[in-house]
Amino acid sequence: MVSLDDVELDRINNVIASTDGNPYKFRNIPFVPDFDAGVLTFQTIAAGDATLNLDAISFVVFVGKMRCPS
Q1: 36 in the Ramachandran plot: left (φ > 0), alpha (ψ -120 to 50) or beta?
Q2: Which residues are within 8 A (CB) of 31 and not within 5 positions of it... i.e. 6 or more apart?
Q3: Could you read off the pLDDT of 8-65 as tens digits, one per residue?
Q4: Which CB contacts under 8 angstroms, 24+ apart, belong to 25-28?
Q5: Residue 3 gets which letter from DSSP?
């Protein structure tokens, strides 16, 4: 589960190992925070080997209207 200040933003159930030769997966979680600061939490419950690699976590600030690329 991913949460910001105890508010759930996303949940991934039944996570399985990457065995298809592509170990990196992409996930986008758009949200609008209530405050300028907060605590971002990644939480999981697992049995056995549960190694997780989080990489390139970033926040993007949008001002005005968001446009889809053409």
Answers
A1: alpha
A2: 4, 9
A3: 999 988 777 777 777 777 888 888 888 888 899 988 877 777 677 788 888 887 776 6
A4: none
A5: E
User: How many other C-beta atoms are found inside a 10 Å radius of the C-beta of residue 3?
Assistant: 16
Cβ atoms of 52 and 44 within 8 Å: the answer is: yes
Say how far apart CA 20 and CA 35 lie, in whole Å.
Answer: 40
Give this prediction's pTM. 0.67
The count of other CB atoms within 10 Å of the CB of residue 9 is 14
DSSP per residue, 9-63: EE---S-----SS------------SSS---EEE----SS---------------
State the DSSP code for 69: -
